[in-house]
Amino acid sequence: METPAIPVPEARSAVPASLRGLLPVLLALPVLALFQWLMSDAPFASYLLSVVGVNIILAVSLNIVNGMTGQFSIGHAGFMAVGAYISGVLSLNLKDVALSFLPVAVSDQVFFVVSLLVGGLAAALCGFLVGLPSLRLRGDYLAIVTLGFGEIIRVVVQNTDAFGRALGLSGIPQTSSPAMVYFWVFLTVLVARRITGSSHGRSLWAIREDEVAAEAMGVDTTGYKVRAFVISSFFAGIAGALFAHFVPIINPGSFTFVKSMEIVVMVVLGGLGSTTGAIVAATFLTLLPEGMRSLFTLLGAEGSLAQKVDQIRMPVYGLLLVALMLARPQGLFGTKEIWDVLPRWIPRKRRGLA
């Protein structure tokens, strides 16, 4: 006679469901505070790490569209420019305003966060207006529309007095910091991972693999693509707003088609669909020019090649991309994440009782 199985009660989490989504953010805050303290005496390292963080936000956000959804956007720098200029103008107008019930430093950070959100929302609105008509169609229409959008933004900025025309916008309060940049890096990666593991993400993967089959199974392909594009545009605007608050001046030359292609190269190099790949590729390609400059200086080429790193950077990117496409067409990580390629002897999370 078989012994009846004894039901095992499900283990309940000690963390309330309402706080479970905020737990990663709360755990990241002390780490970012320590990081900011360590970087306080290294201005160049802080600047370089901030640039790396901005590029990670751009690459991970573009990966939501180009990687997960299978679309092709080549105008990400345009949305970055929208966030940078809108938040920059807002910060300039609020520079002499302070909240009387808060210390000056805290008041400045409150207005800084407001300007970031306004810049991100402005970029998201532009993403909605650009994506809604173009994402109803299949094919390369999104690439053509985003390319045109990026050039329109650049021309508008160059001919608008409020944005400084071709000379750029200067005097923006330098209220950004590496801790703030990496807080948004953390949020961007967290949102990308949550999308990947959700039903929304599975719909995006289905659209990427076969849009006709996904639509036949009842997936609202246009709605999902537009939502993914709006989320991507929002974080591109946040990246631009952060960038505007730690560089002395922003000008149209910082948001050209070349910048958009740099972000595309980062996504392709890391692997279309891999958040880890986007992070690794963005970090590597951002630090590569500084590594090349240091190498040329050590080799005694400071007067020639060391000063031309920015000119030879894009050919080097192109050679790396060609070599990668020949050796590993799917990118460094393909569609996998770092935990998918870890050795099997590393303990994994237990999913049930033995």
Please give a handful of descriptors for the protein shown.
354 residues, mainly alpha, two-stranded antiparallel sheet, 2 strands
Q: How would you characterize the overall build of this protein?
A:
With 354 residues, the chain is mainly α. It has a domain at 43-252. Helix content is 65%, strand content 1%. It is built from 13 helices and two strands. The chain has helices at 17-20, 23-39, 43-68, 76-93, 104-134, 141-158, 178-196, 199-209, 211-216, 221-244, 257-270, 275-298, 309-327; strands spanning 169-170, 249-250. Strands 1-2 form a two-stranded antiparallel ribbon. Helix 3 (43-68) packs across helix 11. The longest helix is centred in the middle third of the chain and has 31 residues, at 104-134. The radius of gyration is 22 Å and the shape is globular.
Task: Show the helix and strand layout.
Elements (H helix, E strand, L loop, with lengths): L16 H4 L2 H17 L3 H26 L7 H18 L10 H31 L6 H18 L10 E2 L7 H19 L2 H11 L1 H6 L4 H24 L4 E2 L6 H14 L4 H24 L10 H19 L27
Antiparallel strand pairs: 1-2
Helix pairs in contact: 2-7, 3-7, 3-10, 3-11, 3-12, 4-5, 4-6, 4-10, 5-10, 7-10, 8-10, 11-12, 11-13, 12-13
Number of helices: 13
- Unreliable spans are 6-11, 350-354
First CA to last CA: what distance?
23 Å
User: Order of SSEs, N→C?
Assistant: HHHHHHEHHHHEHHH
Beta-strand content bin: under 5%
Level of helix content? 55-70%
Number of strands: 2
